[in-house]
Design goal:
- This protein has 2 domains: 31 residues; 83 residues, no CATH class.
- 68% of the residues lie in helices and 0% in strands.
């Protein structure tokens, strides 16, 4: 049986690991081309993944993309998925400038926090 002390140590180690992975993901996203990001986003095809699982994992990704990518990259991504038609419209809408404005306005960076208060999955 785990003691509270053991559980707390695991929790702290997990939080540290998550922070390191967020940093690594940010560097990778910033270094990626539009084609690389399209390939990542394609894994979230609404036709292959629907319902709460899709929302639970896709929304945090979009939040990070809007935080880490510039407007030109996000516009290019939105154009790619908008051109694919109705099956991809929810993705195109998530990548649209109005949605990005809302996301960027809602991201909090608490005083003393190393990372923004991203949505966790």
């Amino acid at each position: 049986m785990n003691t509270l002390d053991e559980i707390w140590r695991v929790r702290n180690a997990s939080a540290t690991t998550l922070g390191l992975i967020e940093d690594q993901m940010e560097r990778a996203v910033r270094a990626s081309s539009v084609d690389d990001l399209v390939a990542l986003i394609e894994g979230f095809s609404p036709a292959r993944s629907s319902g709460t699982e899709w929302t639970r994992t896709f929304e945090p990704l979009v939040e990070r993309l809007w935080t880490w990518c510039d407007d030109a990259t996000m516009a290019a991504l939105a154009d790619v998925f908008r051109a694919r038609g109705m099956p991809w419209m929810s993705v195109a809408n998530a990548l649209s400038a109005p949605n990005g404005t809302t996301i960027r306005a809602d991201i909090r960076h608490p005083a003393g926090a190393r990372l923004p208060a991203f949505t966790l999955i």
